[in-house]
Every structure is written in C-alpha cells, then in structure tokens.
Amino acid sequence: MEQTVAGQAATPFSDGPGALDEGLAAGIGGEKRTPRHAAPPHDWHDTADSVRLRLALLNRASEEIGTTLDLVRTAEELVGIAIPDFADTTWVLLQERVVTHHEIPAQMKDGSARVRRLALGVSDKDPLPVEFWLSTLPIGETAVCPPASPFARCMAERRSLFFPIVSDELARRTAEDFGRPDFLRAMAGRSLLLSPLMARGRVLGLLAFNRDPAARAEYCGRDVELADNLARRTALCIDNARLYNLEKSQALTLQSSLLPKRVQPPPGMEVAHRYVPGSDVAEVGGDWFDVIPLSGGRVALVVGDVMGHGMQAATVMGQLRTAVRTLARLDLPGTELMAHLDALVPDMADSYIFATCIIAVHDPAARTCEIVRAGHVPPVIVHPDSSVKPRVEDVPPNRPLGLGFVTGPFESWTLDLPEGSLLVLCTDGLVESKNRDIGDGLALLLENLGDPEAGLEEICDTLLRTLVLEGDRDDLALLVARIGRAPSRSASWELPAESYAVREARHFVRQQAGSWGLPEDTVDTAELLVSELATNAVRHAAGPGPIEIRLSYDERLTCEVADQVGAEPRAAALPDELEESGRGLYLVSELSADWGSRRTSTGKVVWFALEGLVGVG
Q: Which of 215, 173, 207, 223 is nearest to 190 (CA)?
C-alpha cells in the first residue's frame, strides 16, 4: 500500500526478514573473510555481480561493525561499510537519551522524535563537497524530527522507507523541519533510504543512506533488504554498547555515592585524596578511602580494597565503609575493629569475596599513630627532614578480611610521627599492575616522595601522573596526610590514684579552662564533670598506677580521664538516689554535649565534650 509523506509517495517495508536470495542469505555471518571491495559503485539490481557485492558487504559488516563497546565508534564503523559501495552519503541518527542517558525513551505522544547525529560519511564521488555536508549535518547536533517527517515516521512505524527521487517539496519541508535551509540542496533530486535501528524490540534511531542518481541507480527493494540487514547488525552492536555504558554509569554513580562527599580532617592535619576508576569492563571496583574524626581530637585514616569489580564490589565496599565508620565511632581498638570486619565480610555478598584494609589512628596530643593492616599495601612514611629518605613502614601484614579458614588475632603497630611528617596510604592499583610488581611500584612511589614540604594536591597529581599506567589497570584510592602541630590549647596532668587526686583534677581544669577565657558556667560544668570521672577512676583503681587528665579546646572543650581499669563504664538508666553505681556517668551524659569511653592497651579512657563556647585564649 502506497503512503504519502509531505506530498511524495514513499515505499514502506516491514522490519521483518527480507526476501534475500539463497546465496546472499547463506553468506550472512559466514566465517570466511571477504576482502574489502574496492571497485567503483555498481548497479545493485538483480545480477550475479550485485549479489556478490551485497554478500561481500554483509560479510564485512559482520566482521567490522561492533569491534568496541563505544557508540560513536560503532556508528563510524557502519559508515565505513556503507561508503562508497552502498551510498554517497550516510548518517547515523540515535535517539537523544540513548546517547546522553543510555536509555531508550518512550515514543513522543505527538509522534516526533529527538535525535542526535552520531556519525556522517561522504564518498569522494559525491557531487557535494565534504565541507558542505559537515556544515549542513554537523556531527553531534541534536534535532527534533516532526511527526510528519520521513525520519520520525521511519522510527514510529518501525520499518524502512525509501524515496527513489526526493521531490523538491519534500526536500523543502524537511529543510524547514530541521531549520537547515541548505538541507534542500542535500535532498532534492537525490535518492533516499531510511532504515530503523531496532534491537530487542526497541527503536534506537535510524540509518539514512543518500545517493546521487546521476552517478548510480536509484534505491530499490533489494537495497532496502540490504539496508535492513545492516541496520539490524548495527542496532544490536549499538544496544550492546548502550547497555555497557548504562551499567558503567550506574556502577560509577553507585561508587561515587558511597565514597565520602566531604573529607574534613581535624585541626592540625592536612589531607588530600584521589579515587581513579579502573580501565576494565566495569571500570569501578571496591577501592575506597575515608577520614573519620574520633574523640579527643584523634582521627582514623582508612583505605580499603574489595576484591573484584562492578556492582557487587562497589556494594560490598559501601557496606564495609559504613561498618568501619560505625565501629570506629565506638572507639574500639584497631585490632578489635579489624576482627569485627573480618567476621562481617562473608555476610556481605552471596559469593565468596574478601577485602584488604588499613586503618591508621593518629593521636595529635600524644604524637602517635596506631596502624592495623589486613593484607593491605603497607603505609609509606615521609620524614619532615628531607635528608631522611621516605620509607615503607614495616607494619604486620595480618590476613585479608573475609578469609574464614584463617583465624587468629590481628596485630597493630604504633609509631611516633613528628610535625610535618607525611603518611601515605594507597591501594594496590597505584603500585601494582600486570606490567609492574608491587616491589617496583613501592620503589617508584618512594622516588616521587622526596619533597616533604610539597603541597599535598601536587603530591597526589605527581603520583598519579608517574605511577598510573595506561591501558589495563585496576582502580585505585590514594590518601595523603600531613601531620601538623599539636593543639595549642591542650594540657595534661598525671595524678596518683589517691583520693586527693579528685581535688587536684578540679583545680587543674578550672585553672586551665579559665586561662583560655571560657565562660564561667562552662568552667563550672567542666569542673563538676571531671570531678565525677576522677572519683570513679580513683574508686575503681586496680592498683597504684596513675590516672591522667587531658584537656583540649578547639571548637569545643574536651576532657579525657585515663585509668588502668579495663572494665567499660555504664551510666545509670535513671538518677535513682538509691542507686550509687552509674550516677556520676548519668550526670556526665545529661550535662555534656557528648561523652564516651574507649579501651586502651593499659586500661580505658572516659571523656566528655562541652559545646557552644566563646573563648579568647
């Protein structure tokens, strides 16, 4: 049945298999390679030569289209097949959201279609110069095809349309539709064939083939059959590329959402970080970093790596990062924290998976850093004195997380970090690849850390530029921290576990907090609460060992009382006058902005914090 578009008859063809002759059909997808046909354009009507040409073209298409998972490259491969043997000019139009969002939009209610021109090919024998076509049909341009246009109809009706000769009227209307006056010259009097790009029952876009009838035969039914076969092959490859890009985009979005949005180091520390996706199919993995503020001005620097790539690795990474932050906020010792993570990993995925991790907890007041690593790349230390060479710190390696068949406690390592030191944590993606073992990578890392005073952002850029190899590589996370000065407004006292120590603790806190210019009511509250904590420390002292009081003030006043009793304190549920135990901690919890406790190698620390301060010290 003949259909009319803008006053001109167009012959429609269904998207179903065409009536190819047996010789041509047998050649589709054949394994025998057919050399590229270099002969000039031919008449494609029913002759033995035309059948061979069609067969050669389809064989080339099966071998040369879809060599990559890239939309533009796939479109260019189709253009390279069609020019010059099948068309003088060929262009590939994809629906806009296929290109921008890797999604196939629903058909517009008015029948129009928004498309982007992805590739354009022009034969040397075309009477119009390449410059004309590039200016008339710019690559990458987005256009709206009105519902009555042959381009929108081709996609809406899901079948090919061809115009043996495009009339001046159709060319004029099409030029007006696209807002391109020169398009009249590009279409009028030429032969046009449009084939929809369909894959898995969905329309991705269309192919447009254009011929100059003065130089070769007009398009006919046999050409439509060939165009449909080229379109089906191209559409499947484009859809594979779309699905790949969609999965990659989703994985990258997931990875980005699970990494920290804002890294806020504590006062006295600088931090810089990088995350670089890998180069494999999914391009994302399970690498992550984190900076977690802890009580007493301490900070936990974390870098981890989940085995594998793709959505599962990114999902497990998110769970692990959340678990690390939760356990770290409980002020658990690093070795105990790692043991909990080790037990959690097997429950985070349906299949077997493991992870490596390193946690460095820096205490600015004590100038110490406790490091625990679980099968991870060791940390690198850069001394502030440039005459001292950077070194790989010999931290006990322990086992990776999630190896249920390996048991035993985790070991930690404590070192002193002077002011100006650099602590470098990274995943193996930075120092190891298929072309470089981890030893050579660490040596190269040390070579590029010679200047301890360089800016941290500059250091990160230098390491990525020098160590990250092109080609097949893993994703990577990098965290660089510079240790600053100890808090200027901090003080500590060591007192014997005797009754008079409570009086001395009150006196020290009042004197020190007052010297910082804190409000009188804040000083009174701090004096009262430290009295309660010191009383508990003395009352439950396990021996003659001392108790230590530490006071620090930045944005809030923090007081810590350390003793040699390992039992965790517990606040009373209610201020019952008949219940003696826990009443002091109940008072601390009610009057402070925050409080907590943590175990140490010799006992525990109980602390509280007061906020809303105005100091002048």
A: 215
Cβ atoms of 152 and 111 within 8 Å: the answer is yes
Structure tokens belonging to residue 532: 């309660």
Contact status, residue 298 vs residue 333, Cβ threshold 8 Å: no
Lookup result for tokens 């890239």: 70
Strands 89-95, 160-163: pairing kind:
unpaired
Asked if residue 210 lies in contact with residue 54, where contact means CB atoms within 8 angstroms, the answer is: no
Residue in 134, 132, 68, 71 with CA at minimum distance from that of residue 100 = 71
Token digits of residue 595: 């409080």
* Phi, psi values for residue 85, rounded to 5°: -70, -35
The closest of 525, 549, 554, 552 to 535, measured between CA atoms, is 549
Are 102 and 245 a contacting pair, CB within 8 Å?
A: yes
| Distance from C-alpha of 24 to C-alpha of 228, rounded to nearest angstrom | 14
Answer whether 138's CB lies under 8 Å from 130's CB.
no
d(CA 392, CA 401): 22
Count CA within 13 A, CB hemisphere, residue 217.
14
Q: Give CA–CA dist 6/444, Å, rounded.
A: 68
CA–CA distance, 182 with 172 (Å, rounded to integer): 9
Q: Which residues pair with 161 in a beta bridge?
A: 12, 194
Q: How confident is the model at residue 283 (pLDDT cuts 50, 70, 90)?
A: low
- Residues 339-355: pLDDT tens digits? 999 999 988 887 788 99
Report whether the peptide linkage leading into residue 84 is cis, meaning its omega lies within 30 degrees of zero: yes
CA 45/CA 42 separation, integer angstroms: 9
* Residue 213: exposure state from Cβ atoms within 10 A (0-12, 13-18, ≥19): middle
State phi, psi for 597 to the nearest 5 degrees. Answer: -150, 160
Among the listed residues 97, 176, 109, the one whose alpha carbon sits nearest the alpha carbon of residue 142: 97
- CA 46, CA 21: separation in Å to the nearest integer? 10
Q: In angstroms, rounded to a whole number, what is the distance separating the alpha carbons of residues 322 and 386?
A: 37
The answer to whether the predicted template modeling score (pTM) of the entire model surpasses 0.70 is no
- CB of 417 within 8 A of CB of 381? yes
Q: Tokens 């076509």 belong to which residue? A: 133
Q: CA dihedral defined by 60, 65, 66, 67, rounded to 10 degrees?
A: 60
**Cβ–Cβ < 8 Å for 301, 479:** yes
The predicted-structure confidence for 151-163, as pLDDT tens digits, reads as follows 999 999 999 999 9
C-alpha–C-alpha distance, residues 175 and 152, integer Å: 14
The Cα angle at residue 402 between residues 300 and 265, in degrees rounded to 5:
10
Q: Give the angle 350-353-354 at the CA atoms, nearest 5°.
A: 145
Give start and end residues of each alpha helix (H) in 516-591: 520-539, 583-591
Distance CA 448, CA 458 (A): 11
* Of 328, 259, 250, 338, residue with least CA distance to 295: 328
The two tokens of residue 543 are 């021996």
Indicate whether 507 pLDDT > 50: yes
How is residue 262 written in tokens? 């804002």
- Alpha carbons 216 and 341: distance in angstroms, whole number: 72
On average, the pLDDT of the chain sits at 83
The pLDDT confidence band at residue 123, using thresholds 50, 70 and 90, is: very high
* CB-CB neighbours of 457 under 10 Å: 13
Gyration radius of the chain over CA positions: 36
